[in-house]
């Protein structure tokens, strides 16, 4: 089945008041609860309309309200980080480089999941030239050694992900919402590529002490919480040899949401 065309989001976003990066950095969620949601672009347009009516603001940087991201994930030859997630290991890590293409900034990022279910992220700036592979950068390698159980000699690039991100903040600054669209994946080992077409992955970060207006908006549009990892979905789709039975259910859920078959080339 052919892929659907993307719905332009510029007009729906114009209805939201802007917020600067400096203002958003002041949003401190000390008792943070994270929840992910899955929907499609047509439903997202309606969600954005309701968010504007509720007073949500959209992050604007350099006049842009949609930010393109480019990330490269690293893993061991045997995909240890992917398998730790697949096998429900409570303590696990992901290592990636990420570029914010609007600003030209790039970082090495280490994400850790604790046995309490909390996610902690550490990052350090790197030259944009190191985005595909940071391992020749001594400073980046030392940073990895200091913040990860993995060393540069243990891992290599495995997956590139590209997507567009929209960030919303509620009027009381008690919750942030990241909205990822146009998700594309390229496996750097198998050389297979795919996209999630018009699927949308939403992550809500809220102060657990206050009620969430966005949760009510999502529920109104029948968008329910889901546990989903872009990295794990991408490996499932682009590496036929990877142990991925657990995540194939998620792939079918995405296909049901977008009402289309995901194709791999």
Q: Find the CATH topology.
A: mRNA Triphosphatase Cet1, Chain A
CATH architecture: Alpha-Beta Barrel
By secondary-structure content and strand pairing, the structural class works out as alpha+beta
The pLDDT mean sits at 93
Distance between the termini: 13 Å
Radius of gyration of CA atoms, rounded to a whole number = 18 Å
Number of strands: 11
Order of helices and strands: HEHEHEEHEEEHEEEEHHH
Range of helix content = 25-40%
Uncertain spans:
none
CATH superfamily: VTC, catalytic tunnel domain
Give a structural overview.
With 265 residues, the chain is an alpha+beta fold. The protein has a single domain, classed as mRNA Triphosphatase Cet1, Chain A (Alpha-Beta Barrel). Strands 1, 2, 3, 4, 5, 6, 7, 8, 9, 10 and 11 form an eleven-stranded mixed β-sheet that branches. The longest helix is centred in the last third of the chain and has 14 residues.
Q: What is the topology?
A:
Elements: H1 10-14, E1 17-19, H2 21-24, E2 32-40, H3 41-53, E3 57-59, E4 67-75, H4 80-86, E5 92-100, E6 105-113, E7 119-125, H5 138-147, E8 156-169, E9 175-187, E10 193-195, E11 199-207, H6 213-220, H7 230-238, H8 245-258
Parallel strand pairs: 1-3
Antiparallel strand pairs: 2-11, 3-8, 4-5, 4-8, 5-6, 6-7, 8-9, 9-10, 9-11
Helix pairs in contact: 7-8
């Amino acid at each position: 089945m052919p892929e659907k065309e993307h719905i332009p989001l510029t007009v729906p976003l114009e209805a939201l008041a802007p917020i600067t990066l400096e203002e958003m950095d002041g949003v401190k969620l000390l008792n943070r609860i994270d929840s992910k949601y899955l929907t499609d672009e047509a439903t997202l347009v309606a969600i954005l309309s309701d968010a504007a009516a509720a007073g949500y603001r959209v992050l604007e940087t350099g006049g842009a309200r949609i930010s393109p991201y480019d990330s490269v994930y690293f893993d061991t030859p045997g995909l240890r980080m992917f398998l730790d997630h697949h096998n429900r290991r409570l303590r696990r890590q992901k290592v990636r480089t990420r570029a914010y293409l609007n600003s030209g900034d790039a970082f090495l990022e280490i994400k850790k999941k604790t046995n309490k279910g909390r996610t902690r992220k550490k990052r350090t700036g790197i030259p944009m030239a190191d985005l595909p592979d940071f391992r020749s950068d001594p400073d980046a390698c030392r940073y990895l050694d200091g913040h990860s159980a993995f060393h540069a000699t243990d891992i290599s690039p495995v997956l590139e992900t590209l997507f567009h991100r929209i960030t919303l903040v509620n009027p009381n600054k008690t919750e942030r919402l990241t909205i990822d669209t146009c998700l594309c994946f390229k496996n750097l080992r198998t050389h297979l590529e795919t996209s999630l077409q018009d699927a949308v992955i939403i992550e809500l970060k809220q102060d657990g002490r206050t009620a969430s207006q966005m949760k009510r908006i999502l529920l109104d549009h029948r968008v329910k919480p889901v546990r989903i990892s872009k990295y794990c979905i991408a490996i499932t789709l682009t590496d036929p040899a990877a142990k991925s039975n657990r995540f194939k259910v998620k792939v079918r859920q995405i296909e049901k949401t977008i009402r289309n078959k995901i194709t791999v080339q």
